[in-house]
Amino acid sequence: MQGIDLHTHSNISDGALSPEALVEKAAHLGVHTLALTDHDSMDGVQRAIDASTEHDIKIITGVEISSQWSRPSTNKKYGVHIVALNMQHVECLEVVLCTQKRVRAERAQLICEKLEKVLKHDFYSEVLSRVDGQADHITRNHIAQALLENRVVNRLQQAFDRFLKEGKPAYVGLNWIDLAQTIQTIHEAKGIAILAHPTRYGLSATNIRYLMALFHQLGGDAVELPPRTETASTRQMIDRLITQYGFDVSIGSDFHGDHMPWAKLGQTPVLKDGQVGVWERFN
Ligand code: AMP
Ligand code: MN
Ligand code: MN
Ligand code: MN
């Protein structure tokens, strides 16, 4: 426990806890610096800040932005998550987050239409009730949970493997903001642009290297360290690339709640000698 957790979710996106409950739980676990990084939404951040006044914990403004990138040699688009932290001018993110939320709401409907074709069941209203009617908060996790509850699958992961991930019948192609524009917008807001969980995109080692080089070229600031559950060789590969490009590092649990028990609030990887934490830049 290092007391720093810079990647967490509340029920503003696919987390289980309210922003207030998340802050309280983090404080009780000994976290002193916390970023709430919901998917494409900062709607919970002020609530987290307000709740923090009752505890000995500092809240860093944050959001996890769904982005896309591609290799010039192919037309294929890859998804990537960029964690934006410590924005001084959050209003600069307004237009982008507004567009992302529209994309998210539209995509949820399209996914449910595809599911209905295969499963002959309309999941949309169920999914919508999971987000209190806020269609722009719907993530694929909410849809996976609806599939689980209806016993279409036995585990959340199965929902992705059988229906929701790329190449599967209910997958909807990417329509997120481009990586270059994401980084530029974060910098306009005077925030820090962090490449989230580089080992979680199902990319080959070659494509991870390509992505890290691209992120560096586009002015990205830092890379999130892989969770402790990754193998030593995977961690080494990421550490080497961090050194090669001179990235700072960020640490976050990607906590969602008890429904994803592998990511525990406040449990973060340990820095290697020479690595510089992004929190050194916080004011
Ligand atoms: P979304 O941003 O709506 O595409 O949903 C992203 C969330 O879905 C992430 O936070 C992951 O927790 C989960 N997710 C995405 N892809 C997968 C996958 N292949 N397997 C399991 N969970 C996934
Ligand atoms: Mn999530
Ligand atoms: Mn993510
Ligand atoms: Mn996340």
- How far the N terminus sits from the C terminus, by CA atoms, comes to 22 Å
Mean pLDDT: 97
Q: Cα-atom Rg, whole angstroms?
A: 18 Å
What's the CATH architecture name of the domain at 4-98 and 189-281? Alpha-Beta Barrel
- Succession of helices and strands: EHEHEEEHHHHEHEHEHE
* Number of DSSP helical runs: 9
What would CATH call the class of the domain at 4-98 and 189-281? Alpha Beta
Q: Main beta sheet: strand number and arrangement? A: 6 strands, mixed
- Identify the bound ligands: adenosine monophosphate, manganese (II) ion
Oligomer: single chain
Give the spatial strand order of the biggest sheet. Answer: 6-4-5-7-8-9
Helix content: 25-40%
